Fold these 2 entries.
Entry 1:
Amino acid sequence: MSRADGYSLKRAVVAAVLVPIMLALASCQTVQTTKTGAVGVDRQQTMMLSSAEVNKAAVQAYRQTMQQAAKKGLLNRNAAQVARVKTIAQRLIPATAVFRPDAPKWAWEVNVITSKDVNAWCMPGGKMAVYTGLIEQLKVTDDELAAVMGHEIAHALREHGRERASQQAAQNTVIGIGAALLGVGDVGASLASVVADVTVGLPYSREFERESDRIGVELAARAGYDPRAAVTLWQKMGKAGGGAPPEFLSTHPAPENRARDLTDYAARVMPLYEAARKR
Ligand SMILES: [Zn+2]
């Protein structure tokens, strides 16, 4: 190898390895997406993607999902169910202000999808879906429906989708460096499909679930729904089984810990529920 070859190789390595890392580090920031609330959720989050780009991707992914459901005739088929879900959402959304003053003004959307799956989710920026399987198979009460919707809304408030997509972006940067060195090119997926994956398809970590459980019971209580319903809902889901694993059940093992945590935090927010009921 000549000295000139060595030099150009070094430059190529710098370009391939250091530049992506520097770009990634430059855009990396530590944030607290939410205020702690009565339940005291407090954890620094590392983000490599901006809220703006993730929320834009979520809008795109949500449109696609709803268009596909509509094309198959699976969107908002039962007017009574849709009205019920929207009423609960309208009570939960103002309660989000305690955690994020900006959240009540988000472009919230909620739709009901006909599916046997016992599931519900909320994409970053407040784009929600509730599946008929959840409503019908579990014969949920309004309090239980509020519990699952509060949990999903909490994922959006904490921007868990953005955090998860950031973790993936970090991994992709590493994969990208390897691929660049090997000359096999780009392996990145579009951000919209990543956001759809992390919200709808992939399980969140136990830590994310615990945060959403705790914030979820507070949202329900502040909206005047019995926070203890989170425990009964979760038990019903555990018994239902079958189909795709529900987002709300996505972090086995340790179910007894989760039941205990939900019971504990539901008890803590009971005064908020009592106060909301008096209003
Ligand atoms: Zn969850």
Entry 2:
Amino acid sequence: MNVLLISPGYPADMPEFTRGLAESGANVIGIGDQGKGALPELVQKFLSHYVEVPSLWKTSDVISALHAQLRGISLDRIECLWEPGIMLAAELRAHFGVPGLTVEQAHRFRDKEAMKVAIDAAGIRTPRHISVDTVAGCWDAALEIGFPVILKPIAGAGSSDTYRVNNEDEMRMALPLLRHVNTVSVEEFVDGEEYTYDTITVGGKISYFNVAWYRPRPLIARSNEWISPQVIALRDVDQANLVDGIKMGQQVIDALGLDTGFTHMEWYRKADGEVVFGEIGARPPGAHQVDQMKYACDFDVFRAWGQAIAQGKMEMEIERLYNVAIIFKRARGVGRIQRIEGMEALQQRFGEHVVWETLLRPGMQRRDWLKTLVSDGFVMLRHPDLQQTLDMADAVGTGLNLYAG
Ligand SMILES: Nc1ncnc2c1ncn2[C@@H]1O[C@H](COP(=O)(O)OP(=O)(O)O)[C@@H](O)[C@H]1O
Ligand SMILES: [Mg+2]
């Protein structure tokens, strides 16, 4: 089984996927724009071949490079776990006659308007949405839908260029900020809690799923620097407030026709219990949510995905043992980290529940909080009991502080 993996070295959690795939019996061929020597060690160790290209964004050049270098090797699967490469993977599949998401299907995972049209057609509740490419169109759409609305790019990521607009004055302020975005999706603003529904799907059947809860919603976390955003992988997925979202998630995967691979969906639950679709990607979530899955069930999630791809089945007993919280910290001030306060006290209180900690240390340059989801580092912790998990996460949110200057 020869599997072509696009960009095996980037972003940060790709190395483990390369390992998981190779350990599941696949011959993993990488293709990317990094030099071979610059690939993470784990990737180098588990790749059987690497095709280096100057850029991944000209499909015809990528195809030529593959023809030149893969003489005699046929490809059985072409995989990409990274949002910008989803269309490339589909185009390569079409060219090489390899099964998996087609160009048409992949487009529905990339273009948020096409996505919602397909999901509407399946009778699933989406926010009211109108896609526009002029300022006048934005006004018409907002007035038709009614304030508050969300304005966002149809192919955005990480809440970039996304605005909640409550009235006409705010609309006048937001529109100039979106001038560089070609097509804008104007949506009904859905108030509520926000969750994920992520799966490893095998042959159209969901073999594993995870539900995580964003505290607070990503747009709020992204708009307020003082917040320490949390994502909680939930242990009890049978709780009443998740049932409808999980059911919707299964319907969405059926509607979009995914065969085998990772999916990452976001959905909203309103105060009255109604669930509303947010978005879905044909890839795993970022910002270490896959590592949260690993710590929630103490299983090799990367190898589980590898089995799904290489063997068309997933042979693991998976038991949800813990809730896993990740808390991203943003330093106060700019420049280099000067000191960290509160670490010892928290370590003493519940250090045994911390599974990972990556806070920047004094002397290191702090990051641009708008450009990185991992902020100035994070703490990941777990506990079988949800309330205790939330209490510890909140204590990290308020009691641990990094200062830069
Ligand atoms: N229709 C909506 N109603 C309420 N909040 C929304 C809506 N659309 C987006 N948001 C907020 O903006 C965030 C980013 O939007 P999303 O569609 O997930 O795009 P991406 O994550 O790709 O940037 C969401 O997580 C949510 O907090
Ligand atoms: Mg999102």
